[in-house]
Amino acid sequence: MELLQVENLNFTYPGSREKALNGVSFSLEPGSFTLLMGASGSGKTTLLQILKKEIAPFGEKSGSLRLGDRPLEEMATDRIGYVAQSPESQIVTDRVWHELAFGAENMGLESEEIRLRVGETASYFGIGEWYHRHPDTLSGGQKQLLNLASVMVMRPEMILLDEPTAQLDPIAAANFIATLKKINRELGVTVLISEHRLEECFPAADRVLVLEKGRLIAGGTPKEVCFALREHPLFAALPSAARIWRSLGSKGECPLTVKEGREFLHRFFPTVQGKTETKPFTESAAAVELQAVSFRYDRTAPDVVREMSLRVNSGEIFAVLGENGSGKSTTLRLIAGLSKPYTGSCRVFGKTISQYKGNSLYRELLVFLPQDPTALFLENTVEDDLRESFCLMGKPREEYPECAAKWIDLFEIAPLLNRHPYDLSGGEQQKCALVKLLMRAPKILLLDEPTKGLDAAFKQKLVQALHVLRQEGMTVIMVTHDVEFAADTADRCGLLFDGKVLAVEQPNRFFAGNMFYTTAAARMARGKFENTVRCAEITALCKGQAEI
Amino acid sequence: MTLQRCNPFVAAVYFLGVLLITMFVPHPIILAVSLLGAVSICAFLATARDLWRGLRLSLFLFCLITAVNPLFSHNGVTPLFYMNGNPVTLEAYLYGAGIGLMVVSVYLWCKALSLVFTADRAVYLFGKATPKTALVLSTALRYIPMLRRQADRIADAQKTIGCTASDGYWDRVKAILRMFSALIGWSLESAVETAKAMRAKGYGIGRRTAYSDLSFRLRDGLMTAVCLGLACAVPIAVLRHDLDFAYYPAVTRIEFSVWNTAAIAAFAVLAFLPAGAEIGERVKWNYYRSKI
């Protein structure tokens, strides 16, 4: 007997001619773990919100929704839990314990019952240590775990999650998915989750549903879906092992994890060995130079950045990788002049930051894309925002269309120009923010976690855009958790640890040398291919030698 | 049992009692005891740096009030010298010192109060009166730091694109207004999301209970009774005129009787109760630890 049955669900937002959901039918077994995948704007959020009647969007709806043997509209609130994307704005109260109790309070439970539920949930999720804290003092990963736990206090049969790990770093994301899997396995709670980051979630799912433009285009076990999507652009979002499998001719069963990927390579390409050749790196004039820079946020706090020395050449893309809280964002803030080091010097094109008077550093030399691009937007539409920002640089209004057109075309944001910046998806905001920054014709671009919350297609576009910028001679410094993205774009990578940048290397040497902090492709290539860290490189080596 | 471990209700009764007595009983011994009590509890609760700052400010306030009072008040029977033809009296100095002592004591008690009443304890107290207010207060306390952080983020982001133009006064005002409106937009957006999360967790579906992880135990009741008992001794003595004291026209001679000694002793116990509890707690802990 199915837990949830959706039959021929159609949904249209008011004022829109296109259906957001079009003839969607599926059912979920009790205790199953189902992944809902699809590009941004494919209707994933709409579908999940319709299944949670309290927050269902307004619009024209048809079709039947049943939970157990009753229509969905009649069921009690606590049977279905919902976790949304933003860890921050979902937290309602000012204490962790109160947040846990919030749902139970709404159900009108008595204090003793709430005490027990909150206590056991907190210990199951390992919240004990930060039980009395203010949510502000928690990391993003802890906040999202709190959101999950506070839903679990209500003891739902099914939980819906809308891209819960999009704002988290990879380690916190893996931890979150593992906890979710544990709830599913140990408590038998049915899970329906939508995700962009599929490396961990895809192999973990029992079933995968694929949405495209409001239609369900595929459904089945992860391996079946891999097979069904072979020719589809969405395949780019699947785990590295599956991408290698497809580009090598889809032989045998589709591998999903690094382990299966290694087995696949050994089985079908047993004799192939090789090495990826990379061009040697040549130094050029320094764009940014840090010398023995130290910084702390408070007189009594520990150093976040400790005697850091770093030289970034002009015209290169430099990626700083590292754990959460290792000081990556702080490093960027120091380079951008937003924080001042207490010792050491930070030079941009040979001049220290304090030698740039007024706004001269920011007007044409250096721009900074913060982690949360919403902070950049001031006007009510993207177009107004771009134009105002252009005029504020002191340039004549007439030149705006010409200057903007180039970037608007590169990032393909023309359809977004009349929208409100806050209504855009994370990826769209990122692109508009980049256009706003690049119109200033900077020489240095600083990016803080540029791939946070982006789907595979957006990420691919960003990779291409960065390659275009490099050809134009722009210096790019980014801090990121996304090792795949760094391997695809960077000229050199450095690992930030203990307040210093260690081991600055070209990406191939860097990731091939690392055991833990490396790409999935590099893990698969270890012991077989030298100096190989990207899926495309593995494919090229396998193909090249297989033909001989 | 230290104030922090008591139920917030007990702490509220305690601070109310001590503050009222300090403010309305101008007897110098009571004020001195009150000051010492406040310093003793601040010494336990505040950090060394914070305590030093508090004491520095207190000393400044005390000296200021003592020095300024005689300039305005010329009452008193013991002129020390004449200024612009007006007598500057000993009594006026002493009166200033008394008021200074009172202000400084109240300031230090409030400091201790702010250290004991963390936001969640304040929310608990409100929650007992009206659960709705408590929830509003709790969401506000969650929201304000978020708003402040976003304001910083917007300011930083705008700085790096040179929009906080330091060109002129008017430009700067315009930049701040633009950032302010962006902040309002962001806060509305985020409020919508929070409201959604609240509904998803069943807010508004029916009767709501208010949960708290603090409870009112027997010893909290006993502690309240003790505090009230000790605090009552002073008003009784005041009503019996045992604690009468006047600065003008001449300073009253303090004569000790059984009654006023008892009232002062009771107040001293009350004022030093929190510090004593802290010491007791530490001694107890050292003893227990020695057994580990």
For the structure shown, list the relevant keywords.
heterodimer, A: 548 residues, alpha/beta, Rossmann fold, 2 domains, six-stranded mixed sheet, 19 helices, 22 strands, globular, B: 292 residues, mainly alpha, two-stranded antiparallel ribbon, 9 helices, 74% helix, extended
Molecular structure report:
The complex is a heterodimer of chains A (548) and B (292). Chain A is globular and about 70 Å long. Chain A contains 19 helices and 22 strands. The model of chain A has no long low-confidence stretch (mean pLDDT 89). The relative contact order of chain A is 0.10. In chain A, strands 6-7-8-3-9-10 form a six-stranded mixed β-sheet, with helices on both faces. Chain A is α/β, with parallel strands linked by helices. The longest helix of chain A is centred in the first third of the chain and has 18 residues, at 170-187. Chain B has 292 residues and is mainly alpha-helical. Chain B has a domain at 8-122 and 212-291. Helices cover 74% and strands 3% of the residues of chain B. Chain B has a two-stranded antiparallel sheet. In chain B, helix 2 (28-45) runs parallel beside helix 4 and helix 3 (48-72) packs antiparallel against helix 4 (90-116). Chain B starts with 7 loop residues before the first helix and ends with a helix. The model of chain B has no long low-confidence stretch (mean pLDDT 89).
The CATH superfamily label of the largest domain in chain A reads P-loop containing nucleotide triphosphate hydrolases
Uncertain regions spanning at least 5 consecutive residues of chain A: none
Q: What's the end-to-end separation of chain B, in Å?
A: 22 Å
What gap, in angstroms, lies between the N and C termini of chain A? 55 Å
Helix content of chain B: over 70%
Number of helices of chain B: 9
**Which assembly state applies to the chains in this document?**
heterodimer
Morphology call of chain B? extended
Low-confidence stretches of chain B: none
Question: How many β strands of chain B by DSSP?
Answer: 2
- What's the rounded overall pLDDT mean of chain B? 89
Whole-number tally of structural domains of chain A: 2
Q: Give the strand line-up of the largest sheet of chain A.
A: 6-7-8-3-9-10
Quickly give the structural class of chain A.
alpha/beta
Secondary-structure-derived class of chain B: mainly alpha
Number of E-type strands of chain A: 22
Largest interface in this structure: A-B, 65 and 53 residues
What can be said about the biggest beta sheet of chain B?
A: 2 strands, antiparallel
C-alpha-based Rg of chain B, rounded: 26 Å
Average pLDDT score of chain A: 89
CATH architecture of the largest domain in chain A: 3-Layer(aba) Sandwich
